Amino acid sequence: MQEQPNILVVDDEQGIRITLAGILEDEGYNVVAAEDGYKGVEAAEKTKFKFAFIDMKMPGIDGIETFKRIRKASPDTIIFFMTAFIAEDLLKEAVKLKTQAILYKPLDIDLVLKVIKKDLTETNILIVDDDYSVRETLKGVLEDKGYMVDCVEDGLTAIEMTRKMHYDIMFIDIVMPGIDGFQTLSEIKKISPRTNVIIMTGYDIDHLVERATSLGAYRCIPKPIDDMDKLLQLLQAIKEDTIRSDILVVDDEFSSRETLKGVLEDNGYKVSTAEDGYTAIEMAGDTHFGMALIDVIMPGIDGFQTLNEIKKIDPEVNVIMMTGYDVEHFVEKAISLGAFAHLSKPIDMVELLQLTFSAMKE
User: Fold this and answer.
1) Residue-wise over 234-251: b if at least 16 C-beta within 10 A, else e?
2) Between residues 213 and 111, which one has the greater pLDDT?
3) Is 344 helix (H, G, I), strand (E, B) or coil?
4) Looking at residue 244, what is its pLDDT?
5) What is the rounded end-to-end Cα distance, in angstroms, of the chain?
6) Cβ distance 52 to 77 under 8 Å?
7) Strand partners for 128
8) Are 313 and 289 in contact (CB under 8 A)?
9) Does the reported pTM lie above 0.85?
10) Bridge partners for 326 per DSSP
11) What pLDDT score does 2 carry?
């Protein structure tokens, strides 16, 4: 049984600090509570924490500075900010620091527990290799880092498992009995295009890279895997690429499109734009977007039709609808069509960034 992770709670408000720490302890987590940033940093220098919850406004050093010092002491700690209110400039800085999320006070405890459990299990990995020692060694290293790992010894079993569940990352050996790694990669990509596949080989890697890449591999790595730190950095890069996946802004108003694009790009997101629904649907067929912002009133087909068609193409995209009109009627219809959230125009940029945090973490 895997040991429960250590969690750090840093907040100068005693009531919040004690309440949150108590709830997390009741869930079985090991919790350390600190009343200011200095004590939080001191705790992080002595203990390895899987998660840290940091209040943004505190006496002494604020949450931003506390974040920087804890990240320096413990680069692997997953950090959440907590706040009752926030200025737009602080929110932008928080995003640039790549905090995991911002949680608003009063805290939704169910959400807190959900994000912890999600981050403990969010990256599912499958190792496909007929060599038992390679499979088990790699599995042990990855599980020690909190990843959920399955192992199989051949490509046919890997394909069968991919039909049953989604794997975020897959390690596939080239030379295996039955079907080889290239055939396995090709079939996996047909079933699950978003799975990031890392090809492993003990042979001439330069010769294999071009073919592996053409079949959709994320990277080729040589065997034996001697540098585990480098491998873990690669996994972190994949995770960050997934979090920072593309956003599509669909609005016939040029100024609205460009304003939204600018704000989101300033906060580290990759943004594409479309001026009508037809263009947006075509783009969604070519690219997976983590999120789409769609205006309701547009020429050609409206935002609701656009939402409906995009969700048919890519059910996993989180769509935020925008309108300056009858909000009450609009919200009901947007939700019925599968929208993630809604925004009223003119757009509150702080609300936009908060919703984007949530949508891109789903």
Assistant:
1) bbeebbeebeebbbbbbb
2) 213
3) strand
4) 45
5) 27
6) yes
7) 152, 172
8) no
9) no
10) none
11) 47
